[in-house]
Amino acid sequence: MTTQENLLADLLPVPDAAREMQRCRRTLDRWRRDGIGPDFIRLGRQVYYRREALRRWILAQERSAH
Predict the structure, then answer these.
(1) pTM of the model
(2) Domain membership of residue 21 as a residue range
(3) Beta strands 46-50; 11-13: pairing state
(4) Is 36 contained in some domain?
(5) Based on the structure, what is the number of domains in the chain?
(6) From the CA atom positions of the chain, what is the Rg in Å?
(7) HEC-encoded secondary structure of the chain
(8) Which residues pair with 13 in a beta bridge?
């Protein structure tokens, strides 16, 4: 395993993050643009999500049924 693989091992590229969230890539793109989606990491032109950031954001969307 190379050093780059180790550093990026915990990061999901946008297509993988979209698949995990059962959303299309364009939805994640729109959320990033509008500043309403999960935290992300931009390395040059590539965008990545940490699985834990996705989980945190999903849990933050929970609302009570009042």
Answers:
(1) 0.83
(2) 3-60
(3) antiparallel
(4) yes
(5) 1
(6) 13
(7) CCHHHHHHCCEEEHHHHHHHHCCCHHHHHHHHHHCCCCCCEEECCEEEEEHHHHHHHHHHCCCCCC
(8) 48
pLDDT at residue 26, rounded to an integer? 97
User: Which positions ≥6 away from 47 have C-beta within 8 Å?
Assistant: 13, 14, 32, 40, 41
The owner of tokens 């979209």 is 18
Residue 65 belongs to some domain of the structure: no
66 is a domain residue = no
Q: Retrieve residue 3's tokens.
A: 């050093």
- Residue 29 forms part of a structural domain: yes
Structure token pair of residue 24:
């299309």
- As averages over each run of 10 residues, the pLDDT of the chain (66 residues) reads 73 97 97 97 97 96 86
Residue 49's nearest CA partner among 7, 5, 10 is 10
